[in-house]
Design a protein that fits this description.
Elements (H helix, E strand, L loop, with lengths): L2 H31 L2 H23 L4 H12 L10 H19 L4 H19 L7 E8 L10 H12 L3 E10 L4 E9 L5
Antiparallel strand pairs: 1-3, 2-3
Helix pairs in contact: 1-2, 1-4, 1-5, 2-3, 2-4, 3-4, 4-5
Length: 194
């Protein structure tokens, strides 16, 4: 393969990688999380993983090495703060797109189809199409007589009436008999989410 062909291949794959990482991060992650620092980090991470993997792949390093590199990158943790499961999942998807695009032994059209499937699947799960959007809230509750198993229906009805939430799950986290209060974690549907 001539130098010009290699450079054009690199450029074309880099453009495909960049387009699909932008679609994934901007169209799926940022649309629902609005966390700009993570979104910027994901885009830079995707470009960096693509470049390192592509350059190492062109030096005749095996696919096994690329997946080893993938494993190292996927185990990285930011030391300043813990990453939620959602951010770790998007980091995994960004790394996956970068690796597939950098070393995938298929055409650009095939790479585009695979990357599009990843983005469509992520978007489908982000919207309410397959899974309802829920939120967890912790409540301090003072009617301690309602926390018994025999009064579960009364507790649920009281919480629904007071909060106005469509509660799908509740868990009693702690009971403070000295104050006559309990801490309850509830999961409820989000009415105003996308």
């Amino acid at each position: 393969m001539s130098d010009l062909t290699m450079e054009l291949n690199f450029l074309a794959r880099f453009i495909v990688n960049t387009i699909f990482i932008i679609v994934l991060v901007r169209g799926c992650y940022f649309q629902h999380s609005r966390n700009r620092p993570y979104a910027v980090s994901f885009m830079m991470f995707g470009a960096g993983v693509f470049m390192v993997t592509y350059l190492l792949h062109s030096a005749d390093i095996s696919m096994g090495f690329a997946f080893g590199l993938f494993a190292v990158f996927s185990m990285l943790r930011y030391r300043t703060e813990s990453i939620t499961i959602k951010e770790m999942t998007y980091l995994f998807l960004v790394i996956s797109i970068a690796l597939i695009t950098a070393v995938g032994p298929i055409s650009l059209f095939g790479l585009s189809i695979i990357n599009a499937v990843i983005c469509i699947f992520a978007y489908t799960l982000e919207v309410r199409f397959l899974l309802p959007v829920t939120q967890e809230t912790t409540i301090k509750y003072e009617k301690i007589e309602n926390i018994g198993l025999e009064n579960r229906a009364v507790l649920l009805a009281d919480l629904k009436q007071r909060t106005g939430f469509d509660i799908t799950y509740l868990n009693i986290e702690s009971i403070d008999f000295s104050n006559g209060t309990t801490k309850i974690r509830i999961r409820h549907k989000c009415e105003h989410s996308k």
